[in-house]
Amino acid sequence: MTQLPSLRPIDLIVVTAGRLASTTAFRIVYPLLPFLSHRFDISLQQGATLIAIQTAASLASPIGGALSDRFGERKAMLIALTLFITGAFSCSFASGFMAFLVGYLLIGLATTLYLPSGQAYLSARSPYEQRARVLGVFEMAWAVSAIIGVAPLMYLINQQQQSMVAYAVLACIGILSFVMLWQLPEHHHSVPYEQRTHEKFNIVKFLRQPGLAILLLFPFLTFGGNDLFFITQSTWLKSAFGANEAMIGGLFVIIGIAELAGSSAVVAFADRIGKRRSVIWGFLLTGICLALLPFVGSNWWVVTVMMFLFYFFIEYAIVASFPLISEALPAARGTMMAMTSAAVGIGRIFSSQSSEFLYLSGGLPLISAVAVITSVLGLIALTRSSLTPKR
Q1: Which pLDDT tens digit goes with each residue over 262-276?
Q2: Angle at alpha carbon of residue 124, lines to 123 and 126, rounded to 5°
Q3: N or C: where does the chain have the smaller number of CB atoms within 10 Å of the terminal CB?
Q4: pTM of this prediction?
C-alpha cells in the first residue's frame, strides 16, 4: 500500500488557521448569551437554544466523515467554510432572533464538518507516537480564538452595543481562510475507493464494534458535563461580580492564555507521558478546580486564577483525548472522529437544555457538582472500553 504523503508544516498551519473563524463564532455565543437575550428580548433559556442549535448540528458529523473519506478532507473543509461564511453573514444582518438562530445553525454545521475533517487530515499523515504534538497545534486554534477572537469582539460589541460588525468580521476571516485552504493540494487516499467504501461506510458494522458505545459515553459525559459551567459562567460572573461584556471579554484573554498553555503542554508532554494518562489526570484536576470555584469568595483576582487553572487543565485533557481517540479505529478514523463529535454535541444539547434549571435551582454549586460527577462517569467509561488505546 502506498504511504500517505507526509504532513508539511504549511499544511498544519493552514488547516489550523482555517478553524479559527468558526471556533471564534462557536465560543463567543457563551459569554454573549446575556447580551443576546437582552437584545432580542428573550429568556436565558431561549438564548441557550443558540447553543443547542449549533451543537445539534454535530449530529451531522457522520455525514462529514463520509464526505471527508469519499471526496477528501480538504474538500470537506472547504464546504464547511462556505457554510460558515453564509452563517456569519446571516447573523450579521439578522433583525430577529429566528434569523440569528438560522445563522448559528449554519455555523454549527460548519464546525461539525471542519473539526473531524481537519483531525482526520492531520492524523492520517502523522505517526501515533507524534500525533499529540500535531493535534495539539491544531487545537491551539481553540485557545487562540479566545485571545484574538472572542476578547476583541466582545470589547467591540460592548462599545457599539450591537453585534452586526463583529459577525461581519468573522465572515471576512472565513473568506480569507477559504482562500488559504484552497491553495493546498488534495492528498488522496491510497486505498482504492471500492475498498474504502466497504471498510469505512458500513455504518451498521461500525456501530457494532465492541466497546464503541462505552467509548462514546466518554465525550458525551465529560464534554456535556463541563458545558454546564461554560453556559452559565457569564450569568454567574454578572450576578456575583457585576461584570459587563468588556470585563468578561478581558477574562477570556486570560482563559485563552490558559488554554494555549494547556494545548502547548500537550504538544510538549502528552506523547511522552501517554495520552491515556494525560486525559485521565487532566479531567480529574479539572474537576477539582470546578468543585472549588463556588467557594472562592467575591475577589475577582482569585476567581481569575481559579478560572486560569480550570481552563488549563480542561484544555490539556480535551486536546490529549483527540489523538487517543484517533487510534481507537484507525481503519475508520474519519468516521470515529465524526462520531466522537456527535457524542460531544448530544452531551452539549442536554447541557443547554438543563443548565438554566440547574443554575436557578442550586446556583454554581449545583452546576459544579453535576459537572464533576458526569466527568468522573465519563472517565470510567473511557477506561472500560476495549477500544481505548493503552497509552
Answers
A1: 999 999 999 999 999
A2: 65
A3: N
A4: 0.76
